[in-house]
Amino acid sequence: MWQGRYDQLYIGGQWIKPASDGRIEVISPFTEDALGSVPDGTREDMDRAIAAAREAFDHGPWPRMPLAERKAAVARLGAQFRAHEDTLAELVSTEMGCPITMSKGMQSIGARLLIDSYLEIVDDYPFRSFRRSGTGNALVTREPIGVVAAVVPWNAPQLVTMIKVIPALLAGCTLVLKPAPETPFDAYLLAEMAAAAGFPAGVINIVPAGREIGEYLVTHPSVDKVSFTGSTAAGRRIASLCGQDLRRVSLELGGKSAAIILDDADFDQAVEMLRTASLRNNGQVCSGKTRIVVPERHASELIDRIVALMDSMPIGDPLDPATQIGPLVSKRQRDRVADYLAIGQAEGARIVRGGDRPVGLDRGWFIDPTLFVDVDRKMRIAQEEIFGPVLTVLTYKDDEDAIAIANDSAYGLNGAVFSGDLDRALGVASRIRSGVVELNGNLVGFHAPIGGWKCSGIGREAGLEAFDAYVECRSIGMPREMVDALEK
């Protein structure tokens, strides 16, 4: 098992001693043994990190570099990700329990593919454009917003970090990253890769810390922009704090996404897609389709298929390539999911598979993949994000009823429609109030924007739209002849 201990923080392009002796202990979700520790950042540490980012933005070369030079530095970081793919995958699996086979794609290669995607599209972003009209003529520029506070969760730490950090860097921003206390080791690997990529001092600063210091970061007067991914409850808190100072904020929050299986779908194909759409990363994915919406007259056969799917997924050591379901990230998370299993049964839903610790796994924070049936759409297990390998089956009478069930949620992050008729599927998908909907398991890809409606967030990430979060627009009025000359 990998062991790690770090005694410094990456601030201002250097490894420096933290302000206190406080430590964050990292515990293996599989063995429940200590993996190692890192410094627990303090206000003084955050002050130094923010000051370094502020200096790098206000007086350093990064915001004033040509885009081509920033792209070159980001490409060097991408090369570092390529060189450390296996190490990164193993780190994340060790820290939070993601099965290693999935970790290689989702946690490691996925992060690098995000970097590549942003590099492919950034030249199409209108950092500079001209507007002519009968009422005036303008040069419109999109300028880097300033110092960015990036606060990321534990479930996909580097994937989520790259979805924020890369557009911020390409736009010309500097940043302070606060990784989750459950997964700090991969953030240290990122610091080492950033140093090797040769970013100017202060452009990237990394301080692991808990919630209190996270709040200090997002309310700091020298921070211009906050980008947060996490729970809706935490997002509400951050939005409230940022609102007091009108600080720019974008939020990617929770979900309770619906997978609608229409009566003309290929049931075998649809249920197989749930292996990743609903249960990847041990169910700890905000975009997971955890409400399976099925036609009443086909409910029994679809339930049988879902049970068989869960039965086919090996549970165990996240570093074993055969494992498809690993442990949850922490005891606290396991206890939370176990509470929802009790709540669902108390509400009258019935468990037809799972519902407890897997047989033979008495150590580690495991929950056996669980399927609830006889679920009413108003039950808490159908309305609240559980964040574990727990699915609910809800039945519908017709397409209108299915759409109503899908939309009966405070969330609107993701969704899916399965049908043998793609035009019918598109018609249903177009009425689901969600930022992303996938037809028959087809992913939208990293060139498309993702993000939530309703309580699933504010703003968009990925695609060209991601850059909008890290710029401010400026319009400069000028004579038409000057516009004509500059546009040549």
TrEMBL record:
* Annotated active site: 252
Q: Which domain of life is it from?
A: Bacteria
Show the PROSITE patterns listed in the entry: ALDEHYDE_DEHYDR_CYS, ALDEHYDE_DEHYDR_GLU
Describe the family membership recorded for this protein in Swiss-Prot or TrEMBL.
Belongs to the aldehyde dehydrogenase family.
As recorded in UniProt, its EC number(s) are: 1.2.1.3
Catalytic activity from the UniProt record: an aldehyde + NAD(+) + H2O = a carboxylate + NADH + 2 H(+)
Q: Which residues form the Aldehyde dehydrogenase domain?
A: 15-476
Keywords, in A-Z order: Oxidoreductase
Q: Which organism is it from?
A: Paracoccus versutus (Thiobacillus versutus)
Q: Does the keyword Oxidoreductase apply?
A: yes
Q: What's the short name of a Pfam family annotated to this entry?
A: Aldedh
Q: What is this protein called?
A: aldehyde dehydrogenase (NAD(+))
What GO molecular function terms would the record report? Answer: aldehyde dehydrogenase (NAD+) activity
